[in-house]
Each structure stands twice: as C-alpha cells, then as structure tokens.
C-alpha cells in the first residue's frame, strides 16, 4: 500500500482564524484514533499531522502486534488506514505543524508554521515523544534495517540472532530481557562501569544466560559489509582507553531515553520532571478542555495500541466536555 498524502490539505497559509470544535495536534496512532472518535461524534475534527503521517509507528518496518492484522503490515500502511477511516467520518487532515498555543481562554488559539490560526473549543495533544539518538554514522541509514528503538515492536524479527542493546537504565534492561525471548545473545553496551537500572532488573539481567555486558564503552558507528543494506557490525570505543574494536551483530537496539515533544506547552500545562504532560485517567490535562494522549503523556508503554486507546479516550472525553460546555 502506498502512503497517499495527496488527499491531505494544506493550511492555506491564511491568518484568518478558523473556528473548529476539536483540534488535534499530531498525526500518529493517538492523534488519528482521536480523530476517528471525534469524527464519529460529528465534531468534524481538524488534525495537524505535522509533515509526516503516522508518528513513530511510521518508522517501523512491519507491525505484527496490532490486533486485526494477523499477517502484519508496515507502519506507513497502518497510518494510512487510520487516516482513511477517520476521514471517512469527516476528519480533516492538514499537513502543517503547530508552533504556538494559547490555552489561557476558550476558544483556545493554535498557530501553525504554515500561517494558519485555529480557534478550538477543545484541543487534543498527541505530539508524541522522540527516542534519543546516538548521533553516530549508520544510525539513520539503518533505522528499520537492524537499528530499532523498540524491542517489543521488533524483537521477533531477531529470532535466533545476536543483538546489541545500548543503554544502562530500566528501559534498556527491560527491553534487553524481552529480547532474550528471541535472540540467542543480547549484549548490553554501556558507557559507564555500572548500570543505572533498578536492583531487581539488574539481578534479572545478570542472571540471564543470554545476556552479556560491555562496560565503559560507546557505539561509535553502525555499519554493514559490502553494501548488504542491513546491520552487520558496530564499532565500539572504550571510554577510558579510547581503543576501538569491531563487534559483529545482527541488530542494534537503542534505549538511551526519550524526549517528549512538549516544548511549546511548557508553562501552559502541568508536566512531570521529564517534560511529559500530566493527565488523569480521562486524558484530561491541567486545563479543562485540553487533553493529551499517546507518548506525550506515556513514558511507560509506548505501544501503538496503547496510544490508540488513549487517543480514543481523549476524544470521548472531549465530546462530553463540549456537550456540557457548548
């Protein structure tokens, strides 16, 4: 299935305010699921998708753990299906980036990079979070071809293979332990000589016969031989001696943290210390009428299905809010 963006409208570059019942910021699983539910409630939601449809899921080569697709499908394909279903009920997709918000009074004001100004009775934020990158040669080139930021998503594809996990925190060990279900060997590469993960996770990792550790070391490069197109080795560099070594591997899983895409909301919504937007169980933020869903409010699960569920919940609550405050 080709990702068809031709049906997505632009902002038009107009500064004349556009009144909308529900504005959704973000075009990943949370935003598109929110669009579906809001559209079915006949709220004619507008979705600011950004410049790419599908969010982080669009970077996944194949998704096999989303219910209803037993054969699996690619991230871009799933995003396109989400989009088509939401549009069927009246959602409008706009390929534009939100750049400024004002939640001080209703209707809320959202301005975009394309020059559009929206006045929204309710806003659903689904801007997601971005995995921290190593910023080394080969990382971008081999993303989806051996480089991954989600063991739960991609672990199955490394059955009976050897992989490297980069990181030393809870996420690195949790995902590393998960990967031992498939990989024959999981080597954790950590820049220090001790882990930052909790004691229980450390004990489980040290006791797992499939896990090995390389200390005081960073990944310097991710590469393949003879243009194979998939990861075949990494270059490791010892942080104390500077020594460089070649390490053969079938995959590189990077877990050095995430950065919530919440910069424009600072000082306007309550956040935790890491910058994730705080919500209650109904996806309500600290401002009535503003909701957050998906990875922007979820530092723990980070799955397509959980983000989609959060998006649906946010839209349902937004519908109730509008019914009560129209």
Describe this structure in words.
It is a single chain. Residues 1-7 have low confidence and may be disordered. The protein is of the alpha/beta class and 326 residues long. Strands 1, 2, 3, 4, 5, 6 and 17 form a seven-stranded mixed sheet that branches. Strands 8-15-9-10-11 form a five-stranded parallel sheet. The protein is elongated and about 65 Å long. It starts with 17 loop residues before the first strand and ends with a helix. It contains six helices and 17 strands.
C-alpha geometry: elongated
Q: Round the Cα radius of gyration to an integer and report it.
A: 21 Å
- In sequence order, what are the helices and strands, one letter per element? EHEHEEEEEEHEHEHEEEEEEEH
Low-confidence stretches: 1-7
First and last CA, distance = 41 Å
How many DSSP-defined strands? 17
Percent range for helical residues? 10-25%
Output the structural class. Answer: alpha/beta
Q: Strand count, sense and closure of the main sheet? A: 7 strands, mixed
SS element count, helices:
6
The average pLDDT is 92
What portion of the residues fall into strands of 2 or more residues?
Answer: 15-25%
What topology emerges from the helices and strands here?
Elements: E1 18-25, H1 29-40, E2 46-48, H2 75-88, E3 92-94, E4 98-102, E5 108-112, E6 117-125, E7 129-131, E8 147-148, H3 151-154, E9 162-166, H4 170-179, E10 185-189, H5 199-207, E11 211-214, E12 217-223, E13 233-238, E14 244-248, E15 251-254, E16 258-260, E17 290-292, H6 304-324
Parallel strand pairs: 1-2, 1-6, 2-3, 6-17, 8-15, 9-10, 9-15, 10-11
Antiparallel strand pairs: 4-5, 5-6, 7-16, 12-13, 13-14
Helix pairs in contact: 1-2, 1-6, 4-5
């Amino acid at each position: 299935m080709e990702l068809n963006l031709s049906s997505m409208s632009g902002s038009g570059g107009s500064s004349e305010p556009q009144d909308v019942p529900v504005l959704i910021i973000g075009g990943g699983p949370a935003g598109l699921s929110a669009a579906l539910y809001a559209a079915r409630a006949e709220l004619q939601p507008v979705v600011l998708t950004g410049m790419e449809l599908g969010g982080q899921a669009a970077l996944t080569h194949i998704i096999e753990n989303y219910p209803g697709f037993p054969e699996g499908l690619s991230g871009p394909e799933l995003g396109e299906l989400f989009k088509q279903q939401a549009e069927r009920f009246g959602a409008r997709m706009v390929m534009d980036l939100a750049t400024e918000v004002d939640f001080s009074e209703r209707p809320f004001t959202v301005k975009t990079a394309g020059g559009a100004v929206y006045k929204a009775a309710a806003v659903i934020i689904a801007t997601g979070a971005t995995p921290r990158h190593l910023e080394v040669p080969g990382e971008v080139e081999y993303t989806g071809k051996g480089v991954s930021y989600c063991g739960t998503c991609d672990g199955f594809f490394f059955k009976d293979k050897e992989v490297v996990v980069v990181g030393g925190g809870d996420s690195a060990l949790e995902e590393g332990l998960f990967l031992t279900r498939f990989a024959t060997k999981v080597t954790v590469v950590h820049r220090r000589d001790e882990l930052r993960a909790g004691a229980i996770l450390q004990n489980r990792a040290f006791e797992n016969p499939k896990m090995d550790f390389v200390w005081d070391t960073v990944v310097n490069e991710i590469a393949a031989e003879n243009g194979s197109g998939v990861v075949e080795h990494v270059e490791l560099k010892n942080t104390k001696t500077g020594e460089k070594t070649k390490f053969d591997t079938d995959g590189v899983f990077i877990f050095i943290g995430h950065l919530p895409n919440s910069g424009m909301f600072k000082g306007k919504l309550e956040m935790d210390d890491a910058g994730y937007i705080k919500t209650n169980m109904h996806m309500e933020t600290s401002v009535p009428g503003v909701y957050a869903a998906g990875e922007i409010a979820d530092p723990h699960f980070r799955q397509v299905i959980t983000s989609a569920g959060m998006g649906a919940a946010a839209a349902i609550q937004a519908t109730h809010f509008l019914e009560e405050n129209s």
